[in-house]
Amino acid sequence: MIDGLGIAGWGVGEIEAKVTMLGQPTSMVLPGVVGFKLLGKLRDGVIATDLVLIVTQMLRKHGVVGKYERVYLILEYAPKGDVYKELQKCKYFI
């Protein structure tokens, strides 16, 4: 699934593609949604790769990685959560 910009994408097999091209209905499982909010800034010497590895480790601990889940990451480096507040105004989050 592709979700960096709110785009959903699924891989399909040959049969599913042919059935869809012929106008027949097909079904799919909708993913669950997991929110993950990061606030603050990285300490000196910590790079983005370190952050991604820790986030992946935390998601695995909660059983998300390897499943068909939709994960939203909110990376917030602005003081007092300005980006998150703007997203709330736009109704992206409840």
Automatic annotation (TrEMBL):
Q: Which Gene3D superfamilies match?
A: Aconitase, domain 3
* EC category name: lyase
Superkingdom of source: Eukaryota
EC code:
4.2.1.33
Q: Where is the Aconitase/3-isopropylmalate dehydratase large subunit alpha/beta/alpha domain?
A: 1-67
Keywords, A to Z, come to:
Iron, Iron-sulfur, Lyase, Metal-binding
Which terms does the record give in the GO molecular function aspect?
3-isopropylmalate dehydratase activity; iron-sulfur cluster binding; metal ion binding
- Family matches, as PANTHER family: ACONITASE/IRON-RESPONSIVE ELEMENT FAMILY MEMBER (PTHR11670)
* Name of the protein: Aconitate hydratase 3, mitochondrial
Organism, by scientific name, is Glycine soja
Lineage per the UniProt record = Eukaryota, Viridiplantae, Streptophyta, Embryophyta, Tracheophyta
